[in-house]
Design the sequence.
């Protein structure tokens, strides 16, 4: 078995005290069939303890009023894990924050999601480019099977690593890296395409509204776009100056962790467009956050990236808006809106 992963995966240590057990609250914790069956085989009292906190219709735990998992103790530790060990956790709890894909017989990709604040710090603030290695132990029960999407694991890995090398070219600006990435995946961009700043802001305001399910009026979207336009150059300049390593590691982790350029069932070009547009949506939100807080320090930025990551995972509207935008425009229009030279 070969597991391609960033080196940080083996460095990660869950620390519920540091994060207030972030992953054990405010979400739906699904309980897979295998785990249910394990508990069904236990003695009556243990079964009762487990199933009295299980909502069969939702196939998930009944969360406490506070939003916490019913098995979270006062020391931010999991009672199921303490009592019965990792094997008796639902697959999602046992696996989080690892995200694992099967990409071929005996080939896997494994990374971590920024939704875990401890992983986010490890990934984004390491002060060096993300490095990769081949591991042999999977340590996870939740695996997304992408084998049907990927015809050759070796070829996919070669292309993915080549793309990551582009994203890690510190001799180039982030914009230039994104442009090269799109060209690498087959876009043919005319030399004379000018950046269309107004449409850029308008489209991002639209995506932002969908992402936050905000049902924004046209007037509100226009105001957001105007605010963004008035401040984007200045704030993005500061962002790229102060957090260029963080941005790079964010981009590399996203690319790898979502299994680009095969994240969506479409060609590499489309996947790359979605990747770029998603990153632009992050920039838009970062600019608005900096304006509303009158600052954007590293903690703010980390918090924002983690929250947006979460949004991307759960906002169907936001992803649909990005995918529609990526699908509907020809190369020059897409680039005039999403790539700034
Ligand atoms: S996995 Fe991450 S978010 Fe969950 S308890 Fe551990 S450190 Fe906290």
Sequence:
């Amino acid at each position: 078995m070969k597991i391609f992963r960033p080196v940080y995966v083996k460095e990660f240590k869950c620390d519920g005290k540091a994060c207030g057990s972030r992953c054990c609250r405010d979400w739906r914790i699904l309980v897979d069939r295998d785990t249910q069956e394990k508990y069904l085989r236990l003695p009556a009292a243990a079964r009762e303890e487990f199933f009295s906190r299980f909502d069969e219709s939702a196939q998930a735990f009944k969360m406490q009023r506070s939003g916490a998992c019913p098995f979270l103790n006062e020391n931010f530790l999991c009672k199921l894990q303490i009592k019965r060990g990792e094997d008796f956790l639902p697959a999602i709890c046992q696996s989080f924050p690892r995200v694992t894909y099967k990409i071929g017989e005996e080939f896997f990709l494994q990374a971590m999601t920024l939704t875990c604040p401890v992983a986010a710090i490890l990934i984004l603030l390491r002060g060096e480019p993300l490095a990769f290695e081949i591991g042999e132990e999977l340590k996870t029960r939740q695996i997304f099977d992408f084998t049907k999407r990927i015809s050759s694991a070796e070829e996919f890995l070669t292309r993915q690593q080549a793309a990551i090398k582009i994203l890690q070219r510190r001799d180039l600006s982030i914009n230039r890296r994104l442009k090269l990435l799109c060209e690498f995946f087959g876009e043919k961009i005319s030399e004379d395409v000018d950046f269309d700043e107004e449409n850029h802001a308008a489209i991002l305001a639209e995506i932002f509204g969908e992402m936050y399910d905000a049902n924004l009026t046209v007037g509100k979207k226009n105001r957001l776009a105007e605010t963004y336009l008035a401040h984007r150059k200045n704030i993005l300049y500061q962002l790229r100056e102060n957090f260029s390593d963080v941005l790079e590691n964010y981009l590399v982790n996203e690319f790898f962790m979502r299994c680009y350029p095969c994240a969506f069932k479409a060609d590499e070009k489309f996947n790359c467009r979605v990747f770029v547009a998603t990153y632009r949506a992050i920039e838009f939100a970062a600019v608005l956050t900096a304006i509303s807080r009158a600052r954007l320090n590293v903690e703010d930025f980390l918090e924002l990236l983690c929250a947006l990551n979460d949004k991307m995972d759960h906002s169907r509207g936001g992803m649909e808006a990005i995918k529609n935008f990526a699908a509907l425009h020809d190369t020059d229009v897409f680039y005039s809106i999403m790539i700034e030279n």
